Amino acid sequence: MANDSTQKKIKPKPRVLIVDDEPTILELLHAFLGDKFSVEVAGGPVEALNILKEKKFDLIISDMKMPVMSGFQFIKEVRSNLLLKTPVVVLTGDVQGAIEANIQLKGENAQVFSKPLRKMDQFVLTLQTIVKESEIANPDTPPDQIHSA
């Protein structure tokens, strides 16, 4: 007879989609987050939207300034066209951009962080908290299936 600890279901890592047009940033974030999250990367918002049509994630991390579509436009597409409430973390290297992002993203289940990210351990803990809070806010729906009504 197996004891209780071996019968517990192992919870899969939260799924994270990282969207950035800079390959170096994608590689660095993948390396830092890979231990705690199941990470997929997209080289831009158009690629990310295509991925999001096929797969669900617990968290999206997006750069603010990208060619073709800004981080704001990307989040608007995620919310209005794909109808996803997935939490979003926005990264920006511009202090003024961070202020504007906080204002424009109010009520969008999004948080803004300034680059460079200096305390990666703290950043990872923050991401884990965001995912956990999303799970608590939507207890009847797995985080990777959270959609707007």
Structure commentary:
The protein is built from six helices and five strands. The protein has 149 residues and is α/β, with parallel strands linked by helices. The chain has one domain: 3-Layer(aba) Sandwich (Rossmann fold), CATH 3.40.50.2300.
Number of strands: 5
Average predicted local confidence, pLDDT: 83
Beta-strand content = 15-25%
Number of helices: 6
Major beta-sheet overview:
5 strands, parallel
CATH fold-type name: Rossmann fold
Task: Give me the strand/helix succession.
Answer: HEHEHEHEHEH
Mass-distribution shape: globular
Helices and strands, with pairings:
Layout: H1 4-7, E1 15-19, H2 23-33, E2 38-42, H3 45-54, E3 59-63, H4 71-80, E4 88-92, H5 95-104, E5 110-114, H6 120-137
Parallel strand pairs: 1-2, 1-3, 3-4, 4-5
Provide key terms for this protein:
single chain, 149 residues, alpha/beta, Rossmann fold, 5 strands, 42% helix, 17% strand, globular, disordered C terminus
Entry summary:
The chain is of the alpha/beta class and 149 residues long.
